[in-house]
Amino acid sequence: MLTHRTNRHHLTSGKFTFHLFAALAEFERDLIRQRVNAGLRAARARGRLGGRKPKLKQSDIEKARVLLSSGKYSMGKVAKELQVSYTTLWRAVGKVAVG
Q: What string of DSSP letters covers 10-72?
């Protein structure tokens, strides 16, 4: 036996309010996405590219490959010389230079 009476009207209006706010949040998120994508397209049309600039130039990568293939320098020493992290150098030259 239930000793607690439930106000069904209250539950229904609460559910409606929740769904209303969820729909508004989804609508706002879609508007933001549209604006961001429009801004990115406009930037690309002006010749702007997104993302971070590469840390190493092509000449730096070639220098690193020469140093590593000579066998006199380790990845750590070359990375320090080029003022980048070991991981950045590894991504740029890969296994080709180490082998």
A: HHHHHHHHHHHHHHHHHHHHHHHHHHHHHHHHHHHHTT---SPPPSS-HHHHHHHHHHHHHTS
